[in-house]
Amino acid sequence: MSRIGRLPVKxxxxxxxxxxxxxxxxxxxxxxxxxxxxxxxxxxxxNVVTVGRTGETREARSLHGLSRTLVANMVKGVSQGxxxxxxxxxxGYRAEVKGPKVVFSLGYSHPIEFDLPEGVSAEWKETKAGxxxxxxxxxxxxxDTVGRIVSEMRKLRPPEPYKGKGxxxxxxxxxxxxxxxxxx
Length: 184
Fold this sequence. Notes:
alpha+beta, Outer Surface Protein A, domain 3, 2 domains, 4-stranded antiparallel sheet, 3-stranded antiparallel sheet, 2 helices, 13 strands, 19% helix
């Protein structure tokens, strides 16, 4: 039996889970989300959700723990939400939130407009601490969507190893290289 899959998911107050065949819908104070979970059975008892297998095949065993984690992330997303932070480094590098878009100025000849999908919000906080120009906070209900959006934003200008300029995750460490030295 899966160690992760057999753990029950406790539901906080104001969170509702509805199971319709393979489709699991979760609704809470931050929003709602749904996901299709094939190969497993999901049962709701009062304020606990349990995930079980439909069989003992290799595929069913591998989906058991994954499905339980996906349900737990859905419950956490609608009750607390998910947040990722990006740091923008470099002279003149900045971002600006304009409605459902984030406009980046990253040293290119033109500003880059990044469209945010439905259910994802962003916030820009300017910090002039050292070389750091500011931080972009991306928030949403779905952990996968927030992670994918942050990854796409980082790809616009990944941090370079010599001066550290670019867009990086807050927890990321950029390994710095020594530049060229003059001939002695």
